[in-house]
Structures are given as C-alpha cells and as structure tokens.
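The record is kept unedited without comment:

——
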Amino acid sequence: MTESDAHDVIRVRGARENNLKNVDLDVPKRRLTVFTGVSGSGKSSLVFGTIAAESQRLINETYPTFVQQFMGELSRPDVDALENLSATIRVDQERMGANARSTVGTATDVHAMLRVLFSRIGQPHVGSSQAFSFNVPSISGAGAVTHATGAKKGQKERRSFEITGGMCPECEGLGQVSDIDLDQLVDKTLSLNAGAILVPGYTADGWMVRVFSESGFFDADKPIEQFTEQERNDFLYREQTKIRIANTNMTYEGLVPKITKSMLQKDRDALQPHIRAFVDRAVTFVACPACEGTRLNEGARSSRIDGVNITDAAAMQITDLAAWVRTVDDPSVAPLVQGLRETLDSFVHIGLGYLSLDRASGTLSGGEAQRTKMIRHLGSSLSDITYVFDEPTAGLHPHDIQRMNETLLQLRDKGNTVLVVEHKPEVIEIADHVVDLGPRAGRAGGTIQFEGDVAGLRASDTLTGRFLDHRAQLREKVRPATGSMPIRGATQHNLRGVDVDVPRGVLTVVTGVAGSGKSSLIHGNLPAFDDVVVVDQTAIKGSRRSSPATYTGILDAVRAAFAKANGVKPALFSANSEGACPACRGLGVIVTQLGFQSTVETVCELCAGTGFSDDVLEYTLDGKNIAEVLAMSVDEAAEFLTKGPAAAVLGRLRDVGLGYLTLGQSLSTLSGGERQRLKLAISMAKPGAVYVLDEPTTGLHLADVDTLLRLLDRLVDDGNTVVVIEHHQAVMAHADWIIDLGPGAGRDGGSIVFEGTPAQLVEQRSTLTGEHLARYVGA
C-alpha cells in the first residue's frame, strides 16, 4: 500500500470492543461500505462502538467544551489502532426525545425558515421571526439602569423593552391544556369521613384525609355535593394556609393543587403502577381552547401569505406544503424559498412526505426519526465527513428503499464516507465495499468473514453470501381461518372509515407503504379484543440492574437452585439484596456523580464487576458460581440448566433467535428488534392468544428471517393467531392472508387496497406491494 493509498482508508487494528476478536480492517474512504452479518455478530460494535466512538472521542479531546473539560475524557474503545478518521456524524434509530415542544419542523429547522418567511412577507406584519415562534412568549418591562462608563457614568436612565413572541399565553406553547376529572378525585355523594376522596393513599381514617376533615373549613360528615360554593372552593382549590390539628401546626392546601404537586407534576414513568393508573384516569389533555391546539397566539395566526397562516402551513402534509411553497413568488425572499423547497423535497424523496411539520417528534418511530435526522445533512455542503447509519431501511416498504439508496449514494458522491449497518439485499447491492461479520452471534461472532465487493460476497461461502439471493416461496396451501376479529369504521389518524375482518387462527400480514395507516389500524383497534398480546419494540421498563435473567424470571429459578444446592437463603444470590458487593452495592461499577455534569463509571475493584460479594462467589452450582452463570449466553445456559421453569424459558429465548444474549447483560444494550423478541419469548407461554408483532424482522439477518418464519408457523400451529405489521417480502410470501393498505401515505393512504392470499396479490399485481412481491418471488 502506497502512502497516498494509506490515507484513503480508515485503518482499524486489533478491535476488541464487546465480542470483536482482534479485528483488523481497512475501510475505504469516500465510498459506501455496508456492514452485515447475523444479529449479534459484532457489526454495531465495530461501526458504532469502535469507529464512530473513537472519532467522537478525538473531537471532544481536540475541541473540548467548557463542561467536557470538567467531565474528563470519553473512554477509548478497546482497539490497538485507529487511523485516518474524519469527523463522524452518527444517524441512528434512537427515537427523538419526547420534548413536548419538539416537532418535525423544529427538529429539522424547517419551521425556522417558515417563521422567517412569514416575518418578511406575511400580512399584516406582526414582527420578527420570534413573533411566529411558540417557544417565545411576548413580554415587556421597564426599569432604571445606571451607566457604568462614559460621560454618563453614575447617572440613572429609565429604559423599557418589549419582545413580541408567538407563544400562546394560555397553554404556553404546548397546544394542550390538562383537565382534571374531579369525579375521579372525589365521590360527591359521600362525606370525607365516609371515604369521599378516591385518590390512592387517601383513606378515610388516614392522616392525609384527617388534614381535610379537621381543618374546620367544612363539615367532614356532610356529603361533598351539599357543600356551599365557599366550602367547595376551600376543599378543592384553597391556597396553602397554616392550620392547627391535634396541637400540631400543619399546612392546609386544596385537594387539586395538592394532588397536582404530589402526583401530576412528576415523571409519569417514575410513579408506582397504581398511582400511574390513577393519573391516567384522572387527567385528560385537550386542545387549548385559546389557540385551538396550534400553540401560537392570535397575532401570529393573523398574518397570512395568500390566505395561509403559519399554523395552516405547519399542519399541511409535507407534500402539500412543498406544492404551496412553489406558489410563493416574491423576489425579496427568493433564496429563502429556494432553500425551503429543497428541504421539503428532501422529505418527500426520503419517504417522509406524509408527515406534517407540527407532528410531535416524540411520536415518530425509530425509522422515521432516523430519516428525519438525515434531512439536516442532505443539503449540507460539508465533504469528507463519515456518516454512520444503523439500518436506515427500518420501517420502509420495498417501494421506498430505492429512494433511500439514492440518498445514501448522494451523500457518498459529495465526497463523504458512508458506513451502513444493514441486512437488506437491496442496500447491500449498491455497496462499493461489503464487510461481513460472523460466523454467528455473540461469542461465536466477532470476526471478519468477508470483505470486498458484492460479486465477491455472492461467490463466497459465508452465511450472508449463501442467503443473498435466497427467496422465500409462496405458501403452497394456506391455512383456513377459524373465525375473525371485525374492525368497523376505523378512523384513527388517516384511516378512512375502514371496515375489515382480521382472520383468526392464521398468519396475517398487514402491509403497505410507510405512513399508509398500518399501525393505526392494528394498534388502534385490535387491542380492544381481550386475548390480544401486543409485542412491540418499545423500551422495556426497568432499572440499570434489569437484565434478560431478571426480566424473564430465569434469575428467580437460578437463585432457588443455588440456595437449595448450598443450604442457604436465595437472597444471597441477588446483587440487589444480601449478596451485593458492599463497595458497589451490586452494580459492578462505581458511579461518581459530578453535579450538573456527566457521571463517571469505573469497574468496581472489589468484585471485579460481578456485583457480588466474595462470600457469595464461593457457593457453586455444578461447579459454577452465580457470576459465572449470569455471564453465560442463553445457548450455554440452556445446556447448563436443563430442568425446571428456567429450561422452558431458555428454550423459548433460543426459539426467537436470542441464544447469543448473556443472561446478565443490561436490557439497555438491546436493540429494538431484540427487545421485541425478548417480549415474544415471555408471551409465548399463553395458548390461544392473538399475537400482534410490529416489524419483527427489524435487525434480522437474512438467515434469521427463516428462523422467524418457522417460529410464526409454530405459534399458529399451536392454535394462536398471529398478526404481523411487516414490509419484508419473505414474511408476506409466507402469510396465509394479507391486508394491504394504501394506495399511498398520509392523506393518500388510509384505505384497504387488497385483502386475500399472497398468491392472489401476486397474480393481480394491483398494488405497489403486489408488484414488489411478484418481483421477489420471480413471478
């Protein structure tokens, strides 16, 4: 390799992050490289945990911010050498933060461009771009200032200021106001002493109620509905007042503000389950009556361009907004309009034309969030940047994948290095360079199986090479339905009064282009049936101590087995209880809080990261201590724990393709697809259920999809009903019944365009799905 060639590659030497086994690799720069391999083979560890992580560490080291100078350096990936790195932009599938003020428009700066546009040519003119921002309130003030320098030093002068913002003063720019259902707080037919307060913890004989009943503001034996207006106001809304009860000074406060502070203003997910259930019943959020949910004040809404105000524009489907922007023809804002057009066209091109700018960013799926983040970079003039993508085709219909490919090639052709972790053959086909990891997952992976061009991969004998042209066949004989679940007049989101019968006892695939209404139809209606089990990819609630072993209940069986074998208490074998390391309290790491900065974690020296005390590690079960068992993979544990409930759960984990996970690893390290399959393994014990799976092929290698299909067949053959929301053609081909929504996305979708068997869909080719499925099966 010449000296010039050496600078045209990212050199990786001795990468050992997670399961990588001293990987050496040269990744060509300014090319499109696809990293593939079975789930858990080490792709993400190499791309995100090594290359992208080291790039970010070097940037932080070279250009430290004020906070970073006090935080210390980011830890270096476990790698011998990384050379020729460029600045890296990581675009992953992490959902956007559920900030109530964040929308698609604010997250992509399109709303900022709209605000400038309306501030320049909107009529009547109401102010600067701030006047159209729902995050800026209108404020004014005045006061005296003292000159510190100059000829007027020491003199006072009266000054006033005024800021014109667009925030609705009623809802403070949130678009919603909360309304407390008083009937959920109080039974008006009862008195306080008879148990009128329905809030959890407020028992009639408890101290919380005693403050009200002995306050002296009303009769505690009188039913609430008989209270006078003053008594009712004192009971529900009175501000904090000092009172004396049983010779003790107390602070009295009305029930509504008291509940608001103690329950409603806290993080909902942090509440205890019964408290959370009460809050969900008692509080409803409705559109703000002052701004009608638009977030903006009357002034911002009054300014219009050709009859359209900024809230109308933000509420438009982006395809419609792009068409409207093209009608704006004013030379004074021509450059701004051109930039706005290009950005909106990027939305459409990347398959997000069905969104609107006022859509809350927290409601986007992982795939939608990733594509939304990409919008920022498509118009960038930067070059020689390394872009890292994590399965950018997640959630995309085959029709949309071609446009995603064009986007990736567009970034490459600007002189950038594009690294993509992906399984879809359509994306692998466009790669300049392919890196295949394996041969299997977890400890059986972590090595390079192939690197080169696509033709070389196809000719190789790797698992990916063998499956690259593999195609599932149409089911020869579909299974008959045993009944149906009728959905009538579904109108959620873009659905147009949909009537459909979802068959029972078979495998049904619900498909259609992204944004066509699949999730609205299924998630918005099927859970109403009692026997429906929804298995999605949302995060699993739990602490940092949660693991596959704790989530599945395997740890309980393991602790009981250890206790029985050693004649001691099961609590000894819990890192959350008596068996915890005294230094780290069972975490395995020492956490150092740095105030408002980040925290620093170091491996506990006393327990070497196991989380258990030395005394506990002396107890063994068949020659293994508890830490060694938790370090086992599911496959290894299945050979070790061959009897009892743990064996059954481990078998189901292997059935769903999670044999490579270790029992003790944190749930926070699992991908969305892994979380979904973990939930499925737990739910599979319920016979006669209706399983609803949302894109279960996410994160699955081509070979793993075949394993998934066998699992779905097993579920149906055991008497269950399986409904899958999916785009993967292999799953469609394997279905007994297909429900196809469309014909397009957003406003152009929301209708059933096909119901029938896969063979009928291929034969008719009447929809986009039918065309792509026909090509897939070679019909």
